[in-house]
Amino acid sequence: MAEEAQVAAHTGLRRTLGFRDLVVYGLLFIAPMAPVGVYGTLDAKSHGAVALVYVVATVAMAFTAFSYAQMVRVVPLAGSVFAYARKALGEGPGFIAGWMAMLDYLLIPAVAYLFSGIAMEALVPEVDRWVWTAIAVVVTTLLNLWGVRAAARVGFAVLAMEIVVLLVFVVSAVVVLVQDGARRDWWSPLAGDGTFSTAAVVGAVSVAVLSYLGFDAIASFAEEVTGGSEKVARAVLFCLALAGVLFVAQTYLVALLEPLSSTELAADPVKQGSAFYDAVDASVGTWLHDLVAVSKAIGAAFAALAGQAAAGRLLFAMGRERRLPRLLGRTDSGVPRVALLLAAAVTMVAAVWAARRDDGLDHLVSVVDVGALTAFVLLHASVVGWFAVRRMEGPPHWLRHVVMPVVGAAILIAVIVEASVTAQLVGVIWLGVGLVVLAVQGAARVP
């Protein structure tokens, strides 16, 4: 018994998080102003109906959030989708779900760190961006090693700053619109500024859903929350809904300030990346442009902090179940420090490598989504498997446990089909490596 207690002490996580902490981690990972970087692309793709794109994307991702809420109530474990698929579908699908999610959880923080490095280099050009990127990795890793509660407190301050900057933008935009009027028709962000096209909106949605990646990280803290898994489920749904409102509001306003039409943006792809900043600069002033840039620099680093924490929990859970080296499944004072350090090391290599290349950002961004989307498909399959096939909670509710997860999976498969060829290729290669690892583990377990 003493030995079992000692093992539990080194494989257990400390329950210190409340509802607010969970929402902070989720919003940090998503970033309240996530649409800033993709606004121009979405506006061009959707023929100006950029706010409608985010309305549809929020509804689309709500199916995935709902499935997370269903599974975290019955499988409240740190491994998130790895634990859900393992319990509902079996060891093999569980490993593949965790393996695919790992690709996303390790690379999204690298992209966020690189965004931070690029923004800081623009503010202090004497220091190369790879140095700023590495500094961001070190600082946030130390916070994560300090403990999830301490990181959440610092993260709350950063998130509050981002929300304040967003509110400053909203108020400034409203003042300009009241004084000078809109540059586009008031309904154009919802109906388009040219010929409305359902196909164009759907095509843009396939890009917009990437802005939401990160809300699922909340579920990875299920073993560290006080008050039960119901709190985690509510946090997942609340975080997605709040992010959707913020995304729709800011894209609606900036579209009304946009001096260029969606057709002009589509004809000049170079202007799409800076379209949000250019619209703010032209309508409000350079001061708000700089304020948003500073907020994005700091916010991106702390988005990576939340992503790194989630990656550490996934590696910890897979190590605890002996699907990865057992050393990863140990904790020190309730903190999975070995798993966090491994996640930080991989992220550091990827982020610094990309920061030292002119095309590094393009390489990272092109592959970050496919792992998460594949894991989400297995999440929906887990809901059907647990509730409808195995009937672990009694007779299933067919709308909640079959119709909604099937629709959610279909939406995600459509997004994967629309992904870049590079992302699809990386996803297939990563899946192939995972299947080989799974086969080797299976062979090792045969007596």
Write a structural description:
The protein is mainly alpha-helical. The chain is built from 19 helices and no strands. It has helices spanning 2-11, 19-30, 39-45, 50-74, 81-89, 91-123, 129-146, 148-180, 188-191, 198-208, 229-257, 262-267, 275-283, 286-320, 337-355, 360-365, 369-389, 398-418, 421-445. The longest helix has 35 residues, at 286-320. The protein is globular, with a radius of gyration of 22 Å. Residues 1-11 have low confidence and may be disordered.
In short:
By secondary structure, this protein is mainly alpha-helical. It contains 19 helices and no strands.
Distance between the termini: 28 Å
Overall mean pLDDT: 84
Please state the overall shape, judged from the principal axes of the Cα atoms.
Answer: globular
Continuous helix count: 19
Order of helices and strands: HHHHHHHHHHHHHHHHHHH
> What would you call the structural class?
mainly alpha
- Uncertain runs are 1-11
Helicity level, as a percent range?
Answer: over 70%
Number of strands: 0
Largest pleated sheet:
none
